[in-house]
# Entry
Amino acid sequence: MKGLVIDMEDCIFCKIAGGIIPSASVYEDDDFKAILDIAPAAKGHVLILPKKHCADLIEIDPDVASKALFVASKIAAAQKKALKADGINLLQNSGEAAGQTIFHFHMHLIPRYENDNLTIPGENLSYAEGEAEEYAAKIRSCI
Ligand code: AMP
Ligand code: ZN
# Structure
């Protein structure tokens, strides 16, 4: 698998980033994989995962951190275009007290719409069968 370094055999995001566990992928390069969140705050909610395991914003390698923002910018632009979003929330939770539940660094990109009345964190949505892949394909086509 290109670029993957597995430091934690039990880490679900290491397995997703390495393609061992399937996901609705929207973007991949040597250092990152971006996927749809399985329980999105809004349809098209993306998670950006570095392939090299690190727990959080405190542990992250500075080079990976700066590249992550570049990837986030590209995907946010694609979400706006593909999903006709009016805005995007970029969210990163570090530590249990901050709401982190998976201890492999990741950034959330959440599509927002005028008057969507979304609260974050709030209620999670789910995808119907095949719907996540449709959303992922739409976003991929705009990157
Ligand atoms: P956080 O609370 O910031 O650690 O975010 C973890 C996110 O991972 C949550 O929004 C979950 O819905 C999401 N998640 C958990 N398992 C999966 C999975 N298998 N595929 C995609 N997203 C997942
Ligand atoms: Zn990991």
